[in-house]
Amino acid sequence: MKYSIEIGKIIEGALKHDQIKVLNYTKQLISKLEEDNEIRAASKFKKLLTTQAETTLSTMSNSTKNIAIPVDTESRATLADIIYPDNNNIEVILSKRNADKLDSFILSYKNADKLNDLGIGVSNTLLLYGPPGCGKTKCAYLIAKQLNLPLVIARLDSLISSYLGTTAKNIRNLFEFAQKIPCVLFLDEFDAIAKARDDNNELGELKRVVNSLLQNVDAMSKDSLLLAATNHQQLLDSAVWRRFDYKLEIELPDKEAISKLISLFTNNIGNLNEREIIELSTLFDGLSGAEIEELITKSIRNAVIHNISFDKKNIYEEYFISQNILPQNCKDPRKLLQIKAKHLRKCNEKIFSLQVIADVLGSSKTTIQKIVKELDTHDQK
């Protein structure tokens, strides 16, 4: 049945006398009807909302943006931040493998009506894990953007309380809030509240928090979306791990993704050509997206504040510094040149020819040739 998610949520809200949920999902239904050019049906529901607003719903907000976000009872800090679709402008670049897996999850939710008709149900929980800086948080933004839904990002500093029982209560309030509006609930740094209960170093309070988390995930409607991300998947409780339909390891970017990241972060500053981007993507192999962004941003910033022109040489210099390629307190120019040349040759001799290294290091091909020959002779001894 088409619009099964919205209709199911409206019925669920009506049975629980939850007028906010009824209102918000009716608006979501109207939006989808309008997208499908079902104007008469959309107008009918709009009229019903208008009529009802004049009576029992008169005190309710006409926009999900004005719904009160739950707060921690002790600190009064909000438990989440909300990013609405019109403010969700983050660009996400992933390896083809990661992008394909993410698309599969998004398509599953977009085809919820077809899956529900077959009695299969929707995969509505996704756990993102992998090394830091690889784009797990950005994936949450991408999913919300693709589905045109607000992204509700849990604030762990508010969620976790020092008062006994308050953390579990905050988790429950956050889950209840996320089911009142069409949204994507995102729990970043997930291991903070989902750590294994057999950890002897943890107090009993954490075990109660994990139990509460499990109960809330189980009670969550299949029409709601839950995302979680962690850098330490090995710390997660096995029962929490099983609650997620999709588990996606976000890996380090591949060469193609690195090339796109370089173009994105340089933003045409320095006018790198295709060959130079290939060289840099080879050099950056093994770095995370966050590391690449930080490296390029620093190189651009240094060029600006020192009033020098920006080109690929600035990026290479920042790379040598940030990756600790150069020994501290070394002032010998020739020694530094040797170290840089050796590192580039080890990356890929085909990509980093003698001429390319000379261009990168601002030296002559003859000088680099001598240096490489010296290094080869030294290595053979």
Q: What this model shows, in words?
A:
The chain has 17 helices and six strands. By secondary structure, the protein is α/β, with parallel strands linked by helices. 54% of the residues lie in helices and 7% in strands. It has a six-stranded mixed β-sheet, sandwiched between helices. The protein has four domains: 1-63, no CATH class; 68-249, Rossmann fold; 254-324, Helicase, Ruva Protein, domain 3; 329-381. It starts with a helix and ends with a helix.
Q: What's the number of domains?
A: 4
By CATH reckoning, the class of the largest domain would read Alpha Beta
Task: Tell me the strand order in the biggest sheet.
Answer: 1-3-4-5-2-6
Helix coverage percent of residues? 40-55%
What CATH architecture label of the largest domain applies?
3-Layer(aba) Sandwich
Overall 3D shape: elongated
Q: From the alpha-carbon coordinates, what is the Rg to the nearest angstrom? A: 27 Å
**CATH homologous superfamily title of the largest domain:** P-loop containing nucleotide triphosphate hydrolases
Topology order in helix (H) and strand (E) letters? HHHEHHEHEHHEHEHEHHHHHHH
Give the biggest beta sheet.
6 strands, mixed
| Secondary-structure-derived class | alpha/beta
Distance between the termini: 75 Å
Overall strand count: 6
Number of helices: 17
